[in-house]
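Working notes for the structural subgroup meeting. M.R. asked for a predicted model of this chain before we commit to crystallization trials. I am recording the input and output together here so anyone reviewing the notebook later can reproduce the run.

Input as submitted:
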Amino acid sequence: MTDRALRKVKSGAQARPTSPVAPVSPAATDKAAAENTGLVPLSSEPFAHDVVEFFGGPKGRFAYSGKKQWFSPLRALIAVAWMFLVFGFLSKATCAGSRTSAEGLISLNWDGNRQYTSFCYNDIIPLYGGRGLDQGGFPYAFSWQEGDLTRYMEYPVLAGMFQGIMGWLSRTTYPVGHWFGIAESGWYFGLTALVMSCIWVVTVYMVFRLTGNRAWDTVLMAASPLVVIHGFTNWDIPSIAFMVGALLAVTRGKNWLAGILIGCGTAFKLWPLFILGAFLVLAVRNKKWAPLGGMLGGTVISWLVVNVPVAEKYPEAWHEFFRLNEERGAEWTTIYAVLNRVTGIEFSPEFLNAFTLPAFLIACAVIGVFGLRVARTPRVAELIYLILMAFLLVNKVWSPQYSLWLVVPALLALPRWRLLMSWMLVDALVWPVLMWHMLGEENKGIGHELLDIMVIARDGFIIVIGVLVVRQMLGKSVDKVRAAHAGRDPLVGEFA
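Returned structure, recorded in token form:
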């Protein structure tokens, strides 16, 4: 071909360019995937999309594009959950640090108020020896003296038995921990954290199923700052698993199983009992007595099966939980403690007992009447969030890890990512501020002012979420969950 002809061909090619193929945007790809899977696309939640992009994009920047995508949304969420559980373990691991004496004795190292300066304090480590878990035997058979008072395990039966099982596992496997130079209580903490991590991951899976077409909302649980700070502060994770399992059982039409799980959850921590209130409202509103009866029957029977044997053989130990909660005063991060620190007003245990229970019952009655009278049938998660919010706000005890209870109900009721992440971050920051305050001003700690501000900010966020839930129930704002499920409640089961 001559140079002239070649130039002609080139000029023709330039004159008649081929139509370029428009690049497919992540949003378009996400939308197409949503049409195939039923999931609400990430692009509909800007913050969610940004979070996923941070971790590599909807498919991952280096993902293999084959016919079958291995790294599914569920696997991605589980991976994120494990990552944040590791962060949670590391945030408490400083308190599990050990030292070896010249005689070869391994002991826990809390020198220099480490539990406060590193804000790593948790109940798991000190209660290993403090509740006789290092000695073997049945947890409720152990007692100790505090002055003239005989003390016992102060947790509900199933929680105490869980601690006892973990204590047995720790003592049995401790030769491995001793070889690594870990104190026995530190080894106990590590095993407990591992078991509760597995329970949490299973719970993440269950929440993934509950979110339905809004599966990405599960990130709010898997990547919660509250997991980092409070996942291993106490033994709250199993109680959350019981609650979530009960909700999942309802969606499968197994109301009797839901009742059994609620009963077991109540035997672990009292609060799972409160979700019965949500289903009571729906049962009355929709006249669904049979599902409610099955749920109530399962709850009562399972609670009795767990509690009666212990109550008969160790009555004083069984009653310790109720005695302690009756006699204790306002906890550090309650509104009563804030008022006391700011105004100097003292709230006696007697006054708090007389006020908090009626206040909670009145709040539940108001929520119930509202749920019955509102034009549109409320969703289960909306009612559960309002009930738990009322309990925490008026209760005289709000151990900071209690905020974990709200995570799942909040994301199921009001999946507004920016708002919920902001609340959880502020709520998590209450803990280091509390530790800094408890260090004492004589040890370079801080006064109560910053702690009070953080507590009020936390309560403010939780109340704002509650107000928005109420507006959503009234139909004054878009219900994203209903919109993603053709106007229905994915958790209602046979109560519809």
